[in-house]
Fold each of these.
Amino acid sequence: MAPRFLTLADVTETLNISSAQAYALVRSGELPAIQVGGRGQWRVEAAELEAYISRMYEQTRQRVKSGHFEE
């Protein structure tokens, strides 16, 4: 069974981004996450990560369709 919550390291690996980029996504609220434990470690629910990916696909489709995209 896949874990319900992922670490930011898991997110960085899945999205192939830096840890600073993953942290920025969480801090901005673009990628919903929770803080757990005494040290406030960030955790992202796997379903939220999948929803984020789906939103990014849709935004990309809209940009391409409208001709507003960067290469």
Amino acid sequence: MATFRKRPGPGGRSAWQAQIIRRGHEPQYRTFDTKAEAEAWARQIESEIDREVFVSRAEATRTTIAEALSRYGREVSSKKRGAVQEASVIAILAVGPLGRLTLGSLQSKDLAQYRDSLLADGYSPITIKRRLAILSHLYKIAIREWGMGGLVNPVPNVSIPKLNNARDRRLQGDEYARLMSAAATYGGEIGPLITWAIETAMRRGEIAAMRWDHLDGPSGPQCRQARVLLIPETKTGTPRRIPLSTTAVAILDALPRRIDGHVWSMRPDSISQAFERVCKAAGITGLTFHDLRHEAASRLSEKGFGAMEVAAITGHKTMQMVKRYTHFRAEDFVGRLG
């Protein structure tokens, strides 16, 4: 027979703890906001014990989200290609309001409150989606690989705000000239990086990962003569080779060779930070480094490249994505209409 007791809860609120002690089973404890919730949980557990289908949730109820995230970071996230970026998200989740809850006590209403608080603080839907995706995968790993039977993943029960992260921002007027002027004052690699991004349509991470042997490696002389760069690791998981313009080749020729074999010294986050500072110095608002990929794809289309050709260069898997990243300006069509 389950017993219930009232006890202090977080924030000064009262809470109800349910306790189930059965011979041959480890004692089960769980705390709820209301007695009705505690009683419903107790009925479910006792029913499972009676039907001999009960799986202990003891480990799940003892392990906090922060502790589970720490293990997830070591065993799972560290092996991903985007480990560095994901580590920062894991750290944010661990110290946030969900971190002190246990895997077994986290409910969809907790996630809904967390989602709403992020929205109120101005976070974008894509940021919320990424955080919840990590939590969801954490639960899947805990259930499948860590032996936490009986654990239920609460993330699928939470609705995510509709994503509307499509952008159509392109360089306008004299913005490129202003960017380059500000970049020259800022110094370092950011100036050549801006032009390189526009000339190649490469992603920020792909640019940061560039190595000289991708151009001058085993197929080096032929690759260099053909003005082709190999991108061995991409976001889609499919390597690709992209053609280089004479401007792109000139940028490479002007760069010093690094001992570590990398073309650029800046990492992805450093590129974005430097670009933000350059934009601020140039008086340009609403422009991100990723928008240069939009600019590059649009310029390829304007030069007469077809959708399949643009996709081969940019690495997009679908024509829908090519359309999303290719933005024409109505003004450019006026002269062709007659």
Amino acid sequence: MKVFKYIKKAIVFALVVFSLSLALQSPSYAAGLEGKWKLTSLNDSSVPEEVKITATFDPNQNRLEGSVDTGFVPIRYFGSYESTDNTIQAPGVVRPRVFIGNEAEEYFSTLSSAQSYDVKDQKLTISDYSGRRKLSFVKAE
């Protein structure tokens, strides 16, 4: 009977250690993407002042949504994304099929080719596989 007592203690100890290891892990990699971002640079060119493009990432639901305002009526878009430690893909972004300006078209094209991201000092950079096509954001709000 003492054997079962020791086994029970070993199991409890293992569960406590496992729980502590989960609690002390670094936050989720996707948490770095979380929140609302404002586009500042599109493929190494500054975004014109009248163009306002935002992206909001929700890592709990892998949902991406935002708006594009090129000076007329803001256009909303949404979709899902997948990310790992430093990779991202957003192939399913749904947006209106109307021309809303060159910057907006380039934004959606670059977003659909996204492969990696980096978050540093409240700045987010999303790049394609070559690193030539980039979206640069700052944290909004």
